[in-house]
What we know:
Blueprint: E1 2-6, H1 10-22, E2 26-30, H2 33-42, E3 47-51, H3 59-68, E4 74-79, H4 84-93, E5 97-100, H5 105-119, E6 127-130, E7 133-136, E8 141-144, E9 147-148, H6 153-164, H7 172-179, H8 188-204, E10 211-214, E11 218-221
Parallel strand pairs: 1-2, 1-3, 3-4, 4-5
Antiparallel strand pairs: 6-7, 7-8, 8-9, 10-11
Helix pairs in contact: 2-3, 6-8, 7-8
Amino acid sequence: MRILLAEDDARLAEPLSEFLGREQHAVTWVSDGRVALTELADRHYDLALLDWMLPGLDGLAIVRELRRLQRPTLVLMLTARDALEDVVAGLGAGADDYLVKPFRMAELAARLRSLERRAERPYAGQVLVWGPLRLEVESGQAWVETEMLSLTSKERQLLEWFLRHPGRLAQRPYLLDQLWSIDADAGEETVKTHLNNLRRKLRAAGCPDPIETVHGQGYRLLPSP
């Protein structure tokens, strides 16, 4: 998973980042609450590990703002506050889980696996629609009217990203960062190739090109016809 770690204590954050890396997660570490919120609002993360007591903005306020923005990022609170009312407050604000410090790395790993399984289960029947085009999220099948498209995994991921972010500009480096593994042997031309193939398949099925190329700025989903 792509994880944001918001923790101001380097003595915990550094070994925790190393452990998560060994568990095959891509980790970004920040130590300030406002920086954490900006990251989570502007970039895609599968999960946020949030310390409650952060400088700038505390973890509880971050969770509340994420849920107000309707961001789907999973949140696991990390805190020394173990009173029942604190646990209730954290979960009530929108956190998905709550882990009290000090904790064992094995327990954290188990909780992350549980949350990851939850994230992999899309909402039953969830469908993203643009004009004659629809994407069934759970099955990964894309249709133009009654014709099912034959898309590669990356083409489907690109299509889902644009359908979930209508009107939002995205440059090739951003899409590469969001949708390709950090270990993948891919570059900006890879993104361009997959986008071109996706658009070609959509046009061949009779769908107007839903993706606009904005010169010098990137790509974005056009308004639905």
